[in-house]
Amino acid sequence: xxxxxxxxxxxxxxxxxxxxxxxxxxxxxxxxxxxxxxxxxxxxxxxxxxxxxxxxxxxxxxxxxxxxxxxxxxxxxxxxxxxxxxxxxxxxxxxxxxxxxxxxxxxxxxxxxxxxxxxxxxxxxxxxxxxxxxxxxxxxxxxxxxxxxxxxxxxxxxxxxxxxxxxxxxxxxxxxxxxxxxxxxxxxxxxxxxxxxxxxxxxxx
Length: 205
What we know:
The protein is an alpha/beta fold. It has a single domain (6-203), classed as Vaccinia Virus protein VP39 (Rossmann fold, 3-Layer(aba) Sandwich). It contains six helices and seven strands. Strands 3-2-1-4-5-7-6 form a seven-stranded mixed beta sheet.
């Protein structure tokens, strides 16, 4: 995730013209990072790789610059990434071309789009919270598929950076109980540096 700035804080409060707001963010921000989140690396090693040694189909929700999609594609996953910002995807496509990988980039508004059912072996969500999408994420997984989810909790309000709108912040243990039809493999909430919840869950075979 790109380093957080005061401009990002303002963006978290921005409701109208969401696509334009995110396009401006990606147009204006410099030093954008394409490094995957450390939690993805950890979760992949311990939970995904043992179950999918030959890779499979993956979906990255609100994937922005495609940092996770590109990393998975390099591991031979067939990846689709969804985001509202075509500007982010312009940068992501250039990086994917440099890395020699093919990714399906889908410019979609997640308020009006939902993934196909039982299509993906792996679904990722990082730093995005849309509660009415939870059931669709469950349905998007194939039997035996894995969900990896990480985003902010309400304790983030003690920090200067990050979202301030409660709609963008998880309540205590909310993510733990958000996917009742999935088996929880790993769950943690932390407040060091930033307040986040991390979940790895699996759909029954």
